[in-house]
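Report of the visiting student (M.T.), summer placement. My assignment was to run the structure pipeline on a short list of targets and document each run. The first record concerns Flavin reductase like domain-containing protein.
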Amino acid sequence: MTIHTEHPFETPEDGRDQVRRLRSRVGATVSLWTSGEGVERAGLTVSSYLVATGDPGRVVGLLHPDSDLLDRLRETGTAVVALLGARDERLAEAFAGSMPAPGGPFRLTEWEQTEWGPRAVGAQTWAGVRLDPSSVHEVGWSVLVEASVEHVVVGADEAPLVHRRGRYQRST
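After the run finished, the structure tokens were exported:
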């Protein structure tokens, strides 16, 4: 038996989307976007986003067009954007849909309901945001959303969970 270092089903180099490859090399702290309340909660792990300062500050994110989060965000107009730490990899995987979460990913940790949506109690740095409905539009394979930052809590500067080249990485 031969063991190979490459993935046997990986797309050949010349068949890969070059823009996607470029994006994968722009590392980002992983965030968890949540919206809704009770059984109507939804969440999504997002690493393609940016925060712009100003009055008000803005958060711009690229969301999956078929995500429950996008539907809930459109319905409620609000969300919590929490930055995840290295200890949150399991939570990130579950909300990304790449790890099973029996009973759903909201069962993996304790939550506090805020006026913007549910917040993982362990999330030390987070923002409550309000969607600008006129800013929602398709961009490539994603939906770009823009929201005003209404509330910010900046906690301890812990080791972030970083997503780069399709993998979660712990950064110090």
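The radius of gyration is 17 Å. The helical segments are 18-24, 68-76, 89-96. I thank the supervising group for their guidance throughout the placement.
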